Amino acid sequence: MHIHRTPEEIAADKQRYEEHQRIGLEFSPTTFPTASPRPAPAPAADSVLMTRSLPGGWYTTLHIAKGEVLRLAPQGAASAVALAVWSAQDTAERMNLPDTVKLQWTTELKKGRVVFSDMGRVMLSIVEDSSGAHDVLTGGSTPATIAQYDNPRLRNTRENMVLAAAKLGLGKSDLMPLFNLFAPVRVDAEGKFEWRGGMIGDGEWIELRAEMDLMIALSNCPHPMDPKAGEVPAPVELTKLKAAPVLADDLCRTATAEAQRGFENNAKAEG
Q1: How many Å apart are CA 204 and CA 132, to the nearest integer?
Q2: Do residues 165 and 174 lie in contact, with contact meaning Cβ atoms separated by under 8 Å?
Q3: In DSSP terms, which residues pair with 220 in a beta bridge?
């Protein structure tokens, strides 16, 4: 059934949306911390729980306990790492990028931002990040996007993630829109996606702190918009670090009212 809305009703809805946006943006800090220095400093030896190299074109799965930190560091070009996340306690709860963007009023997920689940809880905090060049909008590569290169050594994100999900006891229907790390996709003045390669360089890294027990799948395939998408990417070094105390004024926990409510939801679920 089609519901007719008057111009006045549409204008009122727009005004309410803009007011919500204004309140959200005014609550957020006017400046976020500067990007993390490149390259990443070596972690303390006694803080390292695991190290693993994710070869170009391949995938892996990890279990990350609450408070632990996952560091990702590409070792060369064309390494756009696709990330999928589920709650280890209940895999029906999964990463939700549309809500993550909507609740923080931005598509620029960088140091100080968080990643929400589809149940309004915080799954990950971005505690370190050298570029802010990550993509929440376009998804990863597929068999169709790599077919044009006629390179039998190329693999694609879609098929990798299906295999990774199976290793976790999950299926295609459990996959969600993916968070593409080290993929500088932005929207230009005409509303078109563009690849801003100047945003990334050598020595990039990011650290993600788990805010609940998580299952994670990662795929190291070139982003379909990358000019080097026809090349097998460099490996990515993965390091899992021990949990450390979180300060009361931790930016990820306090930057926005929405993030604060998300952490409150975490506490209620745990309590």
Answers
A1: 10
A2: yes
A3: 81
